[in-house]
Amino acid sequence: MSSPAVARSSAAGSRETGPGPRSRGRFWEVGGGGGGDGLERAAAEPERWELLLRRGELLALGGHLKGALEAYAAALRRGAPARPECLGTLVDCLVLNYRLRHGLRCSATPAAGAEPGAGGLLSCLGCRGFLSEPVTVPCGHSYCRRCLRRELRARCRLCRDRLPPAPAAATDAPGAGPRPPPLAAAIASSDFRTSVVLNHLAEKWFPGQRERARAAGRLGELLCQGRYREALAAACEALRAEPSDLTLKIYRAESYAGLQEFKAAIEDLNAILCQLPNWPEVYFRKGKVLHDAGFFGDALQLFLQCLALDEDFAPAKLEVEKILCDLLSPENLKEGLKDSSWGPLPCIKNKPFGFPSVMEEPLSASELSPEQSEEIPQVTSEPVKGSLNHARSAQAVNSTEMPAREDCLKRVSLEPFLSVQEKGALLKRKLSLLDQDVIVNEDGRNKLKKQGETPNEVCTFSLTYGDIPEELIDVSDFECSLCMRLFFEPVTTPCGHSFCKNCLERCLDHTPYCPLCKESLKEYLADRRYCVTQLLEELMVKYLPDELSERKKIYDEETAELSHLTKNVPIFVCTMAYPTVPCPLHVFEPRYRLMIRRSIQTGTKQFGMCVSDTQNSFADYGCMLQIRNVHFLPDGRSVVDTVGGKRFRVLKRGMKDGYCTADIEYLEDVKVEKEDEIENLRQLHDLVYSQACSWFQNLRDRFRSQILQHFGSMPGREENLQATPNGPAWCWWLLAVLPVDPRYQLSVLSMKSLKERLTKIQHILTYFSRDQSK
């Protein structure tokens, strides 16, 4: 069903359709704005929920969000499985609408002039903080280990490539999403090995930041283990030494949230947003705190704000899907859709939140209610357990009486059973704290800033540093451990080691293991992407421009040397090849893997083919092969589709990196000039061609089908016999299929006279025709 049909149906609103026989098409005529009766008619049979889900997707894509919500709700009532991932399209459309309504810019790529975390080149593309424990992903870009472990992003910020999932998500658990690519799964299962070279540079150039990053990593481990008290104490102690470190504030906020000190967590997150108002992760953390406190409307808006800034922030999208799935479920539908009082965030300043009204135009600051800008009392350091009354305002979260986690969960679980009035009173609560600015006390805690007050210090990432001191820049830090030269097109393996691309490929030609740590690289070899590590390349361009230019010059000279088609031509010693005749090859030897790869990289896509010779390694005559296609197998072998080109004679033999080379000269047929000689040649050609066709037609069906499958059909008769340097194509096709001695074939290949070649072929055909007649 096309989108225009949905648009037309949505324009009809909730108009009732006239009586008449029901058809499948009438299902799509239901109004998108409020056609609840139409939805019921459309889903009279339980098996129609698939159509309802599809209708919801189409309505969402068409911008009819309320109709989409009703369609999804009707699908759930009719037995659709309540899976959050089914709402992915709806969430994407909500985020797009939200972004357009609020004039936000998606930060899929860093904005020009925006702070990358003040970390310069050594900053994480995900969190924009210091690149602590750098991990290079398959696309060649680098992220800090924390971002990858927490799955903060689904796709690379720069190239939109999918990032490896966390180890738990990479398993084949029942009900899990699509399996990640093998290489991404391998990186995840190795627990995101850090890049050895980048990690060394970070420690050498910025030891202070590296040590602070280690401390933050230890905080993350404590939080993962649920040791919130210890994490809070460690975070406060670290912040006393580094009060402007925003990453530490995030960890402290998570500690507070784990201890259910929701107001203190909000204060820390607000302090970060005062300095970096477009940091998506902070909006996500803030939304999680409010979600845990039971403020689902505010949490949902914060998650949407996070996704509006960064549409690939995977955890936020999952939370939105879960919230919508829960609220659209049949038991919550009656109350959830009718209630339009899910309180908005004062800092976002939009109208009361209902499902479609989250996209309404924002209010100006003058339209805010007095309660949204009300003064907030001072925060105490310890929570007092208690229960929240359903009619209490959002300042209960900001007061000294904080609910225990059990009380919050109990209150949330009872919400579906509240009356409309009670639910409205409960959900109208506002967090006026969110509109306040905070500054940092000497003890590491925050206090509220009065209107117009200027903080004594600016909270920023504690990563401000200029250029690297010249004495710390060492060329040896950028040397490939295989060729002992400066990196050229550096690539990083899943185990974290970096090599020149060509050096690593040559090693993998022999064995699928890392040259340094011997870890298996089978998935890396099968993927065959070998993406350049962009950060290493950028560092060399910035700090070692002269050395890199010299290294590129050497590479270009080596490539030019390999590009000659008459000198040092690579020779594949295997079988006979003929002009215009296909010659498929199975390449498995390391030396020939290298040879084929070089032929492709230089752009010539050509190499010579000769038969072996006991005295001279390979024969004196051969044929150039043109590579048409290469199919790489997962273990590094390849099937190469080639076709014969020019014939050549070997002038000089050589060897390079294990395979044979040769200086060659090309062979061409000597042209006949006299008219009578041309006529005699034409008669001989027609006679031999007819004899060849007769021989081929008299072959057994099995032999003929095998020849056709391998070499294709016999080329047709040519009018101009001397149009090409190699003569008629059917002669070479016939030589390839005739079962004659290679020495005899080689003698025909070396001939420069078409008349002599036709005579030789005539003798061969006469011999085989006699065998057929017996």
TrEMBL record:
CDD domains per record: RING-HC_LONFs_rpt2 (cd16514)
UniProt key word Aminoacyl-tRNA synthetase: no
Coiled-coil ranges from the UniProt annotation: none
Keyword terms: Metal-binding, TPR repeat, Zinc, Zinc-finger
Lon N-terminal domain location: 559-769
Region described as Disordered: 1-40
Per-repeat ranges for TPR: 280-313
Keyword RNA-binding recorded: no
PROSITE patterns named among the record's database cross-references: LON_N, TPR, ZF_RING_1, ZF_RING_2
Pfam families linked to this entry: LON_substr_bdg, zf-C3HC4, zf-C3HC4_2
Residue stretches making up the RING-type domain: 124-160, 480-518
PANTHER family to which the protein is assigned, alphabetical: LON PEPTIDASE N-TERMINAL DOMAIN AND RING FINGER PROTEIN 1, RING FINGER PROTEIN 127
Name of the featured protein: LON peptidase N-terminal domain and RING finger protein 1 isoform X2
Organism in which the protein naturally occurs: Equus przewalskii
Lineage: Eukaryota, Metazoa, Chordata, Craniata, Vertebrata
